[in-house]
Amino acid sequence: MAQNKKRIRRDKDIPEMAAADFAGAKKLRTAMPKVVETMKRGRGRPKSPAPKQRVSLRLDPRIVAGWKATGEGWQSRVNDVLAAALPKRGRK
Fold first, then answer.
1. How many other C-beta atoms can be found within 10 angstroms of the C-beta atom of residue 25?
2. Which pTM does this prediction carry?
3. What is the pLDDT along the chain (92 residues), one digit of tens a residue?
């Protein structure tokens, strides 16, 4: 423990907290309720109301290479083209 004390660098702008500081501390949900509310969402990307479905599809290698050559987001562009090509009675 004594070795760790040597590595601690004192910072005049951020003094070490004393027992009285901890005693007077407020809970985060009391001091910053808006921050706590945004934290309730959880980690990661929010759940989509209409998530995409994973499928396995065999395509000609030239087709895949051609779409990949169009750059990032090529899968979304394939999705858009397929959606536009849906038969009229199959559209929702």
1. 11
2. 0.47
3. 556 666 777 788 888 888 998 998 999 889 988 888 877 766 778 888 999 899 999 999 999 999 999 999 999 999 999 999 999 875 55
